[in-house]
Amino acid sequence: xxKLKSNDDKEFEVEEAAVIQSEMIKNMIEDGCATSVIxxxxxxxxxxxxxxxxxxxHINMGKAAETGEEDDLKEFDEQFVNMGWxxxxxxxxxxxxxxxxxxxxxxxxxxxxxxxNKSVRAVREMLKITNDLTEEEEQEIINDAPWAFEGPEIxxxxx
Amino acid sequence: xxxxRGRKHRRSLPPDMxxxxxxxxxxxxxxxxxxxDAVRTxxxxxxxxxxxxxxxxxxxxxxxxxxxxxxxxxxxxxxxIIDQILTLHLVLENLELLNAIEINAPMLRSFNxxxxxxxLCLKNVPLLAxxxxxxxxxxxxxxxxxxxxxxxxxxxxxxxxxDFWYAELFMESRAEAPARLPFDINSVTRFYxxxxxxxxxxxxxxxLCCIRSFPYxxxxxxxxxxxxxxxxxxxxxxxxxxxxxxxxxx
Lengths: 159, 250
Description:
Chain A has 159 residues and is mainly alpha-helical. Chain A has nine helices and three strands; from the N terminus they run ββααβααααααα. In chain A, helix 6 runs antiparallel to helix 7.
């Protein structure tokens, strides 16, 4: 078992087989630096619980293919990313820090799926992006690639 | 795609949290977006303007220039889009609509084509270093007129991968390929031919024509397509090929 500590001082025990999906922790274990608790100063307990939930479910990725549990895993992934933007970005940041490639891909794919076909206005509103461009600058950007800003599929709704 | 649960979460999102994500995360999200959506992020804010340009492989698909409503010629529309994307890398996949493409992209570094096409011309590609042409997996003969592929020399081209079934690289002469390519691509150091058919003498002469045209070749990878022939014919073909290769090298 490996002990992880979140930045709000909560400790979690995770099976080594699960936790080595994190390249960072895998390297620490290989270098013999994981004998006591591993502090994770960038990750709060709420996010760490999510990450551990993912790691435990994906513990035997290879086996899942053999035993036909792939669908189950797919369903889990779909449910897993069903979270708000802030939570999603927290998990992405944690996965990035811990270097868990599959989790990064899953969450970034989810972010992309939510943004696909969204209008500029909708993306700005959904993600609270401060627009610091002048009208002239905006027009210049549109003129650079007008085809990217037109089309019947562009969706202006915010959800 | 499931919408995010609850409005609460969205409201609590700190402003510009998305914009302030690390570059590698933004790159990954952009990579999963269709090219059109990725390019559209350039207008989100000043910080976003050139984020999409870091995409190493923007992928274009036919939906971009399929013209249902307007009557603009798809080829013209496509050419315009390519001209506008003064980008480093370009991937074209599963193309069926277009018969002829002309690519004028002075900044293009890597070009990856997969599909069915009768004429492809790279016009102004002085920086192109990597070229990969892959035919569609079908038994129909697909061909690229290699003789007219490059309009002028391509001084930076180092890697070439050619994977065409029943490749017909030179449309004009079917019996035998020319001794050398009609254009100058001396800088090629790595050449990959994943589907050579030893019993196809035309295909073989095409391969040899290419190899002869790359005097500074350092690495050559050839995969022989397993033809339905007996071992002896196979081996004979291999010996002939090796002989041609050796005589070519000397």
